Every structure is written in structure tokens, then in C-alpha cells.
């Protein structure tokens, strides 16, 4: 017979500390004594993370979430990344996508070459393969953020020597994409001509070049690309036609855009690639609305469903945006209610566009309530959402409300402030031109530099002049020392 069950109560399991969530980890990083990236500070942060949870495990999704939460404080985000490398292997998981995020952060800082090289070296060291995003990140950062398209081109041409990466066509197309985004369409076109024997253009190549010319409002050259594409035996794709369509609206050629759209509808009966899709309708709706033709834009929106093309959330976003632009926020709210009633889920763009419309109409309290509703619906606001509220609060004279929102952002209670946030606050401090406001502006300059941003020269000198005129010698000396350290901040003092 089995022994009788024991009457003694089971021994309770020893309580285990739950692992920190991404926001808790981000708070630990933000509160760490140092944001300077050194081996000692990375080891110290690693020890702090383990002290918070001895059984800590940081899988890839958590690591990536923490990096994104710290995105606008690049030095601390990279400090977390290097602390992650120093955790015991059982406590962390290192993946190529995490390295891509670290690479993107490193490329944004003031001395990117050394930082990015050290991150790139981690791929082979940990036996990880480069992803399709690895080198496009660098192309985009050097060509767009640092305005050095020559560096992006040189990097591409040296990849096969330094990293054993094949110079294949998709990688070449990603370089072209970075160049056209930085408004270097001519350089991209020259590169295609120079290397067309090694990299015969495909549909993506031609689409990228067409988009580049459209971005600089040269639709005639974009149409030339379309002709070259056909002559080379490559059929234009739906994306090709949508790029040209958007280009006409960008350049203000409304009649050309409308005629091109009608031609797409006509030819779409025989060629599915030419038939307008939801992107086409959204482009037309937005273009007409921005041009002030809201009634015509609304008719396009009403007609698209009848023509077998259902609107998307992006379509509703475009309609809300142009309705707000026309100054009719009540109608925009009606569109918002209609999209929810029809089962569409608003995204961060939907809420941000509507919040901007409410603020522009002077309904800041209603905009703040919509922000709370947004969070309650599980849609996480991004920094631009907060920037809208900060900007309009200042414009309405609600200075304390704006600074309170900024403080919550700065502490990580909301999303962290970015360079635009600091520029908004610094500009607002010159409205009253009081000594204490100049001190706040100076604190913003110091803080933004600490977070990896450099202020524009004009903005920096304006703050410095303001401090000197209001007699704040101590802060003036701090900014002068900063000016000596960063040569980009040229001294232009006007008394």
C-alpha cells in the first residue's frame, strides 16, 4: 500500500524576483551614474543590472525594446549595449538585429567611424551573419544624417575587401536609395551609368532613380527613367507608377497628376501593374487635399470603395490630415469616429495628426485627453506626438505645462526627447528673454550635447549671446568651454 499522504503543508517555494521589463531596464540605464562609454562604466552598468535581478535574462526582444526606448539618448543606449556584452552568456542573447540597432545608434554620434567599426567587428567575432539591413543603415546614416554621400559610396566600394561582402545588386540599390533620400539624385544616376556593366539595373534600380528625381521635383527626368526602363525591356511596376504620381503632386503639377491618375485607371483595365491601388488613391487624396481641393479629395475617398479598392488606415490618416489642414477639426474627428466604427484600428500617425489638428485649433486640453486615450488604447505615442503638444503649449503661453511634459519625457516616463524637442524649448525661452529663461536654454544645450546631439551653430550662439547679455557668466563659461571642445560650434558672439 502507498504511504498515507503527509499532513504537513508543502514547503513554500522561495520567492523569486521577477525579471525586469524593458522600461525597468531602461530606467536603470538612465539612472546610472555615468553616460560615458568606457569599459569601466559598461562593467558597472552590467553589475547594476545583475544586482537588480540576479537571475536576469535579456532575450533579443527585450534587448531591442530597451535600445528603442533609449533611442534618443544614444550614449546611454550604447552603454546598455556594451553592458549587455559583458553579462554572462546565460543572461543575454545576442542577435544580428540587436547589432544592427547598435550600429544605427553608433552611426548617429559625432565620431561614427570608430564606433561603427567596433560594432561591425562584433558580427564575425560572435559568428553572426550580416543582415540585409546592416550596410544600408551605414549608407543611409553617412549619406543622410552626416551629409557625406562620398563616404557611403566609398564604404560600398570597399565592402568586399574589408568584410567579404559580395557587391550584389540589392546592396547597390540600397546605396542608391540612401543617395536619393539625401537629395543626391544626380550622383545616384551617375553611379548607375558608371557601374551598369557590373550591376545591370533592375526594376528596383529604375524605381529608385525615378523617386530621386521626383524628390527634387524634376518630373521630366523621372519620366525619362520610365522610358529608359521600358526601352531596356523591364516592365514598370505598380510602384513605378505610384512614384511618378506622387512626384507630380510633390512638384505642384496638379493637372499632370490628375491626368496621370486617369491614365492609370484607363490602362489598368488591360495592365494590372498600371491599375491604381490603395497607395495610388491615398496619394491622390492627400495631394488634392494639401492643394486645398478638399471636396475633390473627399470624392476620391468615396469613389475608391465603389471602384473595388478598400481604404487603409493610411488612407484615413491622409483624409484626417488634409481635413485638419483645412482648419475643420470637427470634420476630422468625424472621420476618426467613422474609421473606428468601420473596424479600422488607429495607429500612432492617426493620433498624432489629430492631436496636431486639435492643437492648431487651440484645443490643447482636448489634445491632451486624446493623448491619454491613445495610451489607454495601447497605442504608444512617439516623440513627435509629444513635440506637437510641447510646441503648441508654448505658443499658447502654457509654459509650465510644456516644461512639465518635457520633464516627464526627460526622465523616461514618456518617450525620451529628441533634437527637435530641445530646439522647440530653446526657441521658446527667447519669447520673454528673462535671465532665468536663458539659464533654462543653456541647460537644454548642455543636456542635448550629453545625449549625443549638437545644436545648430546659430542656436548655440544665440543662447551664448543671451547668457552674456543677462550677465550669467558661469553658464557662459560652460558654453565657451563646450565651444572649444566641439569645433563645429564656431564662435560668433554679438554684444
UniProtKB/TrEMBL annotation:
One of its GO terms (molecular function) is mRNA binding. The keyword Repeat applies. InterPro entries: Mito_RNA_Proc_CCM1 (IPR051114), PPR_rpt (IPR002885), TPR-like_helical_dom_sf (IPR011990). GO terms for biological process: mitochondrion organization; RNA processing. SUPFAM superfamilies: HCP-like. Keywords: Repeat, Transit peptide. It comes from the Eukaryota. Residues 1-21 are annotated as: Disordered. It holds the Pfam family PPR_1. PROSITE patterns: PPR (PS51375). PPR repeats lie at residues 202-236, 237-271, 277-311, 312-346, 347-381. One of its GO terms (cellular component) is mitochondrion. This is Pentatricopeptide repeat-containing protein.
Amino acid at each position: 500500500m502507498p504511504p498515507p499522504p503527509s499532513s504537513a503543508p508543502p514547503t513554500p517555494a522561495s520567492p523569486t524576483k521577477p525579471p525586469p521589463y524593458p522600461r525597468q531596464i531602461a530606467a536603470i540605464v538612465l539612472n546610472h551614474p555615468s553616460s560615458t562609454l568606457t569599459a569601466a562604466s559598461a562593467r558597472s552598468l552590467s553589475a547594476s543590472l545583475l544586482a537588480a535581478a540576479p537571475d536576469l535574462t535579456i532575450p533579443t526582444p527585450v534587448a531591442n525594446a530597451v535600445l528603442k526606448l533609449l533611442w534618443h539618448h544614444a550614449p546611454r543606449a550604447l552603454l546598455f549595449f556594451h553592458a549587455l556584452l559583458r553579462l554572462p552568456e546565460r543572461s543575454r542573447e545576442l542577435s544580428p538585429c540587436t547589432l544592427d540597432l547598435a550600429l544605427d545608434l553608433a552611426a548617429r554620434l559625432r565620431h561614427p567611424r570608430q564606433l561603427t567599426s567596433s560594432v561591425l567587428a562584433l558580427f564575425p567575432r560572435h559568428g553572426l551573419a550580416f543582415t540585409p539591413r546592416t550596410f544600408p543603415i551605414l549608407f543611409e546614416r553617412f549619406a543622410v544624417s552626416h551629409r557625406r554621400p562620398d563616404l557611403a559610396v566609398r564604404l560600398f566600394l570597399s565592402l568586399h575587401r574589408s568584410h567579404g561582402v559580395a557587391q550584389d545588386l540589392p546592396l547597390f540599390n540600397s546605396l542608391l536609395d540612401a543617395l536619393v533620400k539625401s537629395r543626391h539624385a544626380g550622383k545616384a544616376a551617375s553611379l548607375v551609368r558608371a557601374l551598369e556593366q557590373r550591376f545591370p539595373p533592375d526594376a528596383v534600380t529604375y524605381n529608385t532613380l525615378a523617386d530621386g528625381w521626383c524628390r527634387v521635383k524634376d518630373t521630366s527626368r523621372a519620366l525619362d527613367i520610365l522610358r529608359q526602363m521600358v526601352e531596356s525591356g523591364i516592365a514598370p511596376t505598380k510602384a513605378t507608377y505610384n512614384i511618378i504620381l506622387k512626384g507630380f503632386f510633390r512638384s505642384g503639377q496638379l493637372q499632370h497628376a490628375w491626368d496621370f491618375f486617369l491614365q492609370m485607371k484607363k490602362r489598368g483595365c488591360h495592365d494590372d501593374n498600371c491599375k491604381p491601388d490603395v497607395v495610388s488613391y491615398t496619394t491622390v487624396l492627400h495631394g488634392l487635399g494639401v492643394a486645398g481641393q478638399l471636396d475633390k479629395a473627399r470624392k476620391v475617398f468615396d469613389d475608391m470603395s465603389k471602384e473595388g479598392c478598400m481604404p487603409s488606415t493610411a488612407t484615413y490618416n491622409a483624409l484626417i490630415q488634409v481635413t485638419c489642414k483645412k482648419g475643420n477639426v470637427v470634420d476630422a474627428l468625424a472621420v476618426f469616429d467613422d474609421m473606428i466604427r468601420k473596424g479600422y484600428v488607429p495607429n500612432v500617425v492617426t493620433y498624432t495628426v489629430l492631436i496636431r489638428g486639435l492643437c492648431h485649433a487651440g484645443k490643447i486640453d482636448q489634445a491632451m485627453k486624446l493623448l491619454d486615450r491613445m495610451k489607454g488604447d495601447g497605442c504608444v505615442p512617439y516623440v513627435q506626438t509629444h513635440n506637437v503638444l510641447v510646441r503648441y503649449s508654448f505658443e499658447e503661453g502654457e509654459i509650465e505645462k510644456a516644461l512639465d511634459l518635457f520633464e516627464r519625457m526627460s526622465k523616461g516616463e514618456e518617450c525620451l526627447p529628441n533634437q527637435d524637442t530641445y530646439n522647440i524649448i530653446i526657441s521658446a525661452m527667447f519669447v520673454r528673454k528673462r535671465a532665468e529663461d536663458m539659464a533654462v536654454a543653456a541647460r537644454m544645450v548642455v543636456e542635448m550635447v550629453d545625449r549625443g546631439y549638437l545644436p545648430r551653430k546659430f542656436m548655440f550662439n544665440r543662447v551664448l549671446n543671451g547668457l552674456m547679455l543677462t550677465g550669467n557668466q558661469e553658464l557662459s563659461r560652460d558654453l565657451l568651454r563646450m565651444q572649444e571642445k566641439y569645433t563645429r560650434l564656431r564662435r560668433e558672439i554679438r554684444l
